[in-house]
Structure formats: structure tokens, C-alpha cells
Amino acid sequence: MRPVMMVIMDDAHRLLPLVGAYNFRDLGGYPTTDGRSTRWGRLYRSDTLHELTDEDLVVLRALDLVSVIDLRTPTEVERSGRGPLGAEPVRYVNLSVLAEEGGERQAAPATRVADTAERYLSYLEMGRDALVGSFHLMAERESYPLVFHCQAGKDRTGVVAALVLACIGVDRRAIVDDYVLTATRMDLIIGRLRRDPHYADRIDELPPSAFIVEAATMERFLDGLSERYGGPRPWALGAGVTEDQLDALVDVLVEG
Known about the structure:
Layout: H1 11-14, E1 25-26, E2 43-46, H2 54-62, E3 67-70, H3 74-80, E4 91-94, E5 100-101, E6 104-105, H4 113-126, H5 128-138, E7 146-149, H6 156-167, H7 172-180, H8 186-195, H9 197-205, H10 215-229, H11 232-239, H12 243-253
Parallel strand pairs: 2-7, 3-4, 3-7
Antiparallel strand pairs: 1-2, 5-6
């Protein structure tokens, strides 16, 4: 029987103290099933970056950030823009996970654990090209340090984080805990959405449960990934990621 591994959620090191982004955090320090851990200062996940302040840019410059993967739709990008990072010397790639029809994204927030997990699983087909494109970029050592983000840093970003962490052998409990950490940031994220005229009315139409981040959601997503595809690596290989790229991900993101 595999021993239980303790996950240390060091928020002081993981969450960056940014004013214009509430969910920007380091994916380093997570234990892998072979006893190693993910490297600090390589891969980051975040919510939208278009409201970064000048002080935030100072923090991000200290990271020597090289690449940004924007998982938002082209319409979302056009509406909000890239913000001040657009003027920085970073590689920017827009890889939309969601399909668009008539200029609007096609994925309404689910309100139940099962519905949300099923929606996440639908991203594996709907957003296959974007997900594979993200893997291709992350497999290149020269892409780092790298951050990927969507609007809230919860759903699309949560799926990409789970897939990448699972593919490099991070312990399942750590993957779930990383997803749940977004719950501590949701009040701030919802507050920003309420200030945005495009999202304010939509938020009020949804029940509070639509914004709850639950461990059971990620558990069901990971279970579905195994049941339908045989696990994260078989999904990735079937979608178009190569063995060499998966090995490269481990090499660049896992210590030892």
C-alpha cells in the first residue's frame, strides 16, 4: 500500500502579493509519487492579469517571467485586453479552452459538483487543441518561468493545472489541495467580477453554489480522467502530446 503523503500548502511562498491579480501562485513544492517534489519558481497559475498595477509589474519582473499562456477566449481578451504585461518582453500565447459561438463563450458555470466535474471533462474534447498547445509550450525549457491563466483562475486554469501536475506524477492529494486553494481567493475574484459591467448582472443570476470550490469536484474530474481515458498520461498521448514532451515536462518541473 502506498504511504500517505503530507501536502504542505505554504501560502506565504505560494501566493504572490499582487494587487491586480488575486490568484497568482507558484506550483512548486508539491510532492510526487516517487518521493520528489515540483520545482519552485518555474510554473505559475493565475486569474486574469489585465488589472496588474505598476507595483505588481515590479514583483513579476523579479520572477524573470518568460511566457504567458492566456486560456481566455478571443472575445474575453478583446474585451479586457492583456493589461500592462502587454508592453513587457514576455512571450504571449492565447489558447482558448472554450468554444465560441456568436462571440460568446459556450460554457455556463455549473452549480453542482457532478455538473462541474462533467464540464471539466468536456474541456478535454472541446479544448483539446488549446490543452495540447499548452503542453507543447510547457515542454520547452526556454519557456520558463511560465504562467497560465483564465478569468478567475478556477475552472480552465484548474483543469490545466491538474492535467500538468498529474502528468508529471504529483500526488493526487496535492492536486486536489491545489485546486481547493482557489476557494480562499473567491471573494476577491467575485468582487472584481461585480465591478465589471459585463459580468455583474450574470453573477447575480447565479446561485452562490456556482462559485464554491470543492475538493469533490476535482476528485470526480480525476476519476473521470481515469475511467474515460486511462489516466492523465494516456489522455495526453491520445490527444497529441508526445512521450518526449511528457518526459521533458518532468525534467523541467520536478527536482532531482
